[in-house]
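Demo today. Your pick:
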Amino acid sequence: MDKELSQKELAALVSLLDDEDTEVRTHVREKIMSLGSPIIPFLEKKWEESFNATFQKQIEELVHDLQFKLVKERLSIWGETGGIDLLEGIWLLNTYQYPDLELETLQKELEQLYYDAWLEFNQDLQAVDKIRVLNSVVFNKLKFSANTKNFHAPGNSMLHVVLETRRGNPISLCVVYMLIAQKLKLPVYGVNLPNLFVLTYKTEDQQFYINAFNKGLIFSKADIANYLGHLRLDTKDKYFEPCTHIDIVARMLRNLYISFEKLGDSAKMEEVIEMLRCLGQGLES
């Protein structure tokens, strides 16, 4: 927070959000935005102390804008530095809807899932058998499954909601599966198919695919070619090979856009487009 402004000065500044003069309110809003996210706790305190609904709404909008600005800044940095840590990128997406969510919370929950899988695991098994064991853990023991009833719910793009409900869409289930698999040192990566996100187990001498939305169904490259043929699409290399972490987060954002479109929330649709731009992406993959 700006050290030049005392608590008294901040209080005076915030009180002007309710000024009758539009120009004054605009100037005050710009000043508060320039102070950044550190001022949010102060604003929240002022919201709690007020009984003026209009003033409270002004603060709510400001807090949202400050939090959204922070999300965009963090997403841009994450993308510009290569999107190395997938969980970090997905956490940043989550903070758009749940700004108080801590990365450490997701890390701890995934560590527990990894431990549950590790207890059942045997590294001496063949690749396909390793995946069958992981399928049993994820879909039978841990009870993860497809959220077919609420397929377009925004929560399907929020990892902590998926971890809590054990329900998700194709990409969020793939993300949970992949993060557990990679902790087990398995070469499992995301594949950006049209209309469906899947996984691939890929080494120098072996490759097959996994559909986490269908309880870990194992399938082949020929099956993908048939799928693409059914959709009358060209068999591009990218439909068979691992995609980047940035691709995964961008696809989750596109799913979130569709969720808000179904809900008729045009403001949030525009904000999702802004987040995609932070990753150098658009609505079209």
